[in-house]
Design goal:
There is one protein chain. The chain is mainly alpha-helical. It is built from eleven helices and two strands, in the order H-H-E-E-H-H-H-H-H-H-H-H-H. Strands 1-2 form a two-stranded antiparallel sheet. The longest helix is centred in the N-terminal third of the chain and has 26 residues. It is globular and about 50 Å long. The two termini are 35 Å apart.
Length: 270
Amino acid sequence: MMADIANRYVLLALIATLGTGVVGFADDYLKLTRKNSKGLSPRSKLLGQFLVALVVALALYYQPRFSTEIAVPFIKTFHFDLGPFYIPFAMLVIVCTSNAVNLTDGLDGLAIGPVMVAAGTYAVIAYVTGHLKLAEYLQIPYVAGVGELSVFCAAVVAAGLGFLWYNAYPAQMFMGDVGSLSLGAAIGVVAVMTKNEILLIIVGGVFVMEALSVIFQVVSYKVRRKRVFLMAPIHHHYELKGWKEPQIIVRFWILSFICAVVGLSTLKLR
């Protein structure tokens, strides 16, 4: 790995990735070897994710000079400080991103495409955030040492390309929870450490769309006894509407590229 392995941000990114990967592995292990189709219970899975996220959030909070302020895209002069509430906020970003990628992983190659796009986008963001002069010029938060995460993000992209070779439709290899939970956590923790947490809503627009479709479906059915979509997550909705699987995958990839471009534009736009 070309990144400085002793860099605190790289270490925390690896902890988040490996920790959530262990949770995902346990879930996959139960499904495959114990003939337990349900795997870990939702409560156990969430508990494991939150414990990993808590370790990372606490380490960041007590990191000297690490800001607990939140930046708002397109409004660079507006910041608000969460103080100690930054800990649960950071945990939510990491866990929600981890689960959103997990929900997106439902078709061959569907999740890994947006994951690589988001990772590539945050590689750029990490570099400029860790570069004092560029951060000052772009009027974005400067975080000393966080530039090393650009190498970490590049590694995610490279690994994703290798995986996509076998995961492309029709897939010969599947991501499973061990992959989706860890990759989602990796993106979430980079967003937190680069101080671009809210920007993740834009950059990870496909993941947000998938997660919201499940939330709307569940809430609508419980409240109104009616479904908003034919099936959730939303990629299954389009399947049932007659779209071919490669058509859905490529169009979702296109959406992820558009989201990435919009996200990167916030670096310059004020």
